[in-house]
Amino acid sequence: MKIKEILLTDKPTISFEVFPPKQESGLDNVKAAAGAIAALQPSFMSVTYGAAGSTSKLTCEVASDIKNLHGVSVMPHLTCVASTREHVDNMLARIRESHIDNIMALRGDIPQDGNVCHDFEHASDLIAYIKAKAPELCIGGACYPEGHIECAHKSQDIDFLKVKVDAGCDFLTTQMFFDNNIFYNFLYRVKDKGINVPVLPGIMPITTARQLSRSVALSGTNVPERFRAIVDRFGDDPDSMRQAGIIYACEQIVDLIANGVNHIHVYSMNKPDVAADILKNLGSILG
Ligand code: FAD
Fold this sequence. Notes:
single chain, alpha/beta, TIM Barrel, eight-stranded parallel β-barrel, 47% helix, 15% strand, binds flavin-adenine dinucleotide
């Protein structure tokens, strides 16, 4: 099913994200984790794409399993920073063969070796291309409530976001954030700019101190004092850190739904137990 149709409901929805293995040898484990998350019956699942296209085949395989073996709507990601048009065409053909209805179209991070392909400069170029080549697909795009790390001015980032949405983006998913007020402020600014597609908040349950430092280093996300205190207190105690991280994510989700943000995307990081605990905590709220 197309995600833009799933998002038409005014009831809360929750979706989960998994990432493919770096090598083929890890495929069975990832498929098992994705299957266990799919068994929880989320509204949809997404499958990320390895940096600079390192996992394109594996992304498609995991996504195809989610859709065709487990019956859950799925959205594989695709980055264009190192992709030729031919590569994108091949990905679109695979997606079509797997009867998948959605794609997340991204630029991807610029590789450290600077090895980029110039067929597509920005995600908006990829989105316009997919819209022309595969108009049947529902297209998602990324957005950054705290501004993209490369962009000096948040307002300019939102100007570029408008170009991206106008290129054919059906909905947006945010980078993770730990302070909902940042998201509410962002929603106000995008609406003000005339961006009217659904914006899904991306919530990452942090279950280890290491996960926090790695994620923050990559994204530049602000960590509020309240969350810092949790990591300082429980970071060395794995069970307590896991529990506290899940509770923090659940509190964010409850606050979002209470404020009318019904569609939540969770960066579940191949952890079915974490996804299951979130659903258990939110059972009545999610209906
Ligand atoms: P763009 O929208 O192209 O933006 C990148 C930068 O260029 C921004 O600073 C923007 O302001 C600027 N820009 C945009 N358009 C223009 C223009 N016309 N002129 C000048 N500047 C412009 N990475 C992966 O490798 N694999 C994944 O699966 C993956 N999934 C993600 C999912 C989500 C929800 C998010 C939020 C991020 C994801 N990323 C993933 C990370 C993402 O690839 C990086 O953040 C990347 O640096 C930017 O990708 P983008 O699609 O947002 O790029």
